[in-house]
Amino acid sequence: MPHLSTVNYRDRDGRRTPGQLVNVSVSLQRTPRLIAWCRLFGHRPVVDGTDPTPMSSSGYRGPGHRWVCCDRCGVRSAPQGSLDPTVYAIGVRYRAPWLITSDQTRETYAGSTVPGPIDAAPTGALGAQLIVGPSGLSGVGWEAKVGNAGSEHTLALTLRLGWLGWLYLHTERHGTWLQRRLNPTGYQSRVTEVTVTARGLRWRLWSKRDDGTRFGLGREPWWRNGAIEPRLLDRVLGPRRRTAVDVPDATVTRIVRMPEADYAVRLKLQRVTSGRLRGRQTTTWDVGWSTINGGIPTQGPDRGRVFGSSVTVSQTAALNGTWPAEAAALIAADMTADRVRYSWQPDDNRRPIVVTLSTAANEKLRSAFANEMLRDAEALRRRLNSDD
Ligand SMILES: [Zn+2]
Questions:
Q1: What digits encode the pLDDT tens for the residues 289-312?
Q2: If you measure from the C-alpha of residue 77 to the centroid of ligand 1, how many angstroms do you get, rounded to a whole number?
Q3: What separation in Å is there between the alpha carbon of 100 and the centre of ligand 1?
């Protein structure tokens, strides 16, 4: 019996893309396949398989494999059999021998080298995913995919409507006849698409989905995999650039206070400039951080430890030297946000996860930090003044 299942991603994932109204998928499984010819006249068994794959880095050639399937609908025999690659060529008609078995005993013969019968009433699935509103996938256009012999989705069609939405339709096993006519060998799906993006027009015509590229290795001709991207803004204002420069002497150690423990972290201030060469430049102040005595856990006492990342501090804090304090607070906020996402909070009764310094040592460290901070602020102020 056909079986319908639906998933509402907006409910399931918790985090919702702003402005997105709908994000659902439906799947109709165990639907009878439309293989009228096979049903009327029976399947047409042929030898199918893979050929040895040369490994680029060595002389090794993987073994080839042979099994039996219907040439029209692609349904494999069960058990599929394991024929000698040196005797059976891919694509030739297969006539005998057959494993004579009933449905109940098929699994017993799963490892048989002789193929079993081909299912007379195979089923497949039809699926769709619909997003109304922003999908995070830019551009307007369509893309059609014809799968390969190993594809889960045999045929697929994608429609992109920019921030209005996105629609994906696919089949599982349905359409295998077409796949076997158009793309019978190998494990490369083929895509054909036309998409208009903010950068320009992009197209692919029967292009290899995974290995096809416009440049470098696997490069395909322009008519097969090409784009017209005028990059008008690049020409007028210069390409977009991002440069990060370490602020000299702005590396300090601070304590990040979490409910269960204190964590010593090394902080490094960077001035980040981004924008186009002849356009508006924006400056941000990023602080890269790394823990000194073990990562900060985010999913449990010993799970999901974060050993470092970066936060963006305010310009005021960067210029007046208070940035280490702001960075430490932002790190604590980031780590807390992660814990909220993973629904974990430290148990107050538990022993601290990281054994921190004794009170006296801690006080010493704190006063050292205070001095260091004043010195940093003074150095930074002097340097910025001398820049002007
Ligand atoms: Zn068939």
A1: 999 888 999 998 888 899 999 999
A2: 10
A3: 19
